[in-house]
Specification:
The protein is an alpha+beta fold and 361 residues long. The protein is 40% helix and 24% strand. A hairpin with a 4-residue loop joins strand 4 and strand 5. Helix 7 runs antiparallel to helix 8.
Amino acid sequence: MSASRLFRAPGRVNLIGEHTDYNDGLVLPAAIDLDCRVRATPTGNGRLTARTLDLHREQSWPLDRLDRHGDWSDYVAGVAVELVRLGVRLPAADLEIASTVPMGAGLSSSAALEVSVALALAALAGADLPALEIARACHRAENDFIGLQCGIMDQFISLLARPDHALRIDCRTLDYRPTPLPPGCEIVTVNTMVRHDLAASEYNQRHQDCRRAAALLGCSLRDATVDQTTALPEPERRRARHVITENDRVEQFIAACAADDLAVAGRLLYASHASLRDDYQVSCPELDFLVEAARAIDGVHGARMMGGGFGGSTINLVAPAAVPGFRRRIAAAYRERFGREPQIHHCRTAAGAGACNEPRP
């Protein structure tokens, strides 16, 4: 029997460009030093078995019946189904999964799981699939098997990321361009440690709102203007306005970083949060509080909510010398307001997914 093989896929932050990926829009994500690792061992027993060391749970399927179970294991089964559709001869295997990407934090734990599983199964099957094809397969798994109508950003960046760079991704063409991260600042995420029950259903509802807006306008929101949205009914008008202005903010943010203008970059993050809160209506009291608390702390250039919304994390651009003080003050303020300890991560950028030769330190 062949030896086991180890694969990793990173989580991500998205600097700016939220809820634009499934609207043919622009995004600016970067991979981070939190990842999901899958140790894959071929078995020859006719089954695919996955066990998660974090949740202490196991699920197993016959290779010819990859059913849904309504839990974490659906991400594994969904990816396996998509690989079969690509012509991959699915191997019987044991998958041992361990992740440092926190679930529900807006750091893309699901895409990290999908991508690491896809790489592991493809490798055991001897299938040499291009990174973009794997990203598309994982994206289809989340859309069709899981039922979350997300865009392709998370899977794309998990596979194609570069250290010290974000990627400007055009989600219509899938063209991408490495973009140096803003000099003179650090990326710090603050996890609210809450995930409101309406997150998944409201995410899909926003997708439907945008589809209706595009249909009424007769064009993709990528091609629409703010002036055109004035004729739309609510909530379609607000949803479209967010997407259109957020695409503009991505380009402005990249230009600000190239000009080393962190004041403008920070203002764009605050503007993005206000748009997500007021037009897209996906924020919550915990996220709003963290953004306003960050605004009052010296050395913070900008902050906004990140991810699907209704919980999860904020992303903060912080001057390097201010990071320790920021961590103390934001944690104390959040504890005082909500009686809960936030999870804070000082992010380091990472390369895209691939095989590992060594276990996690």
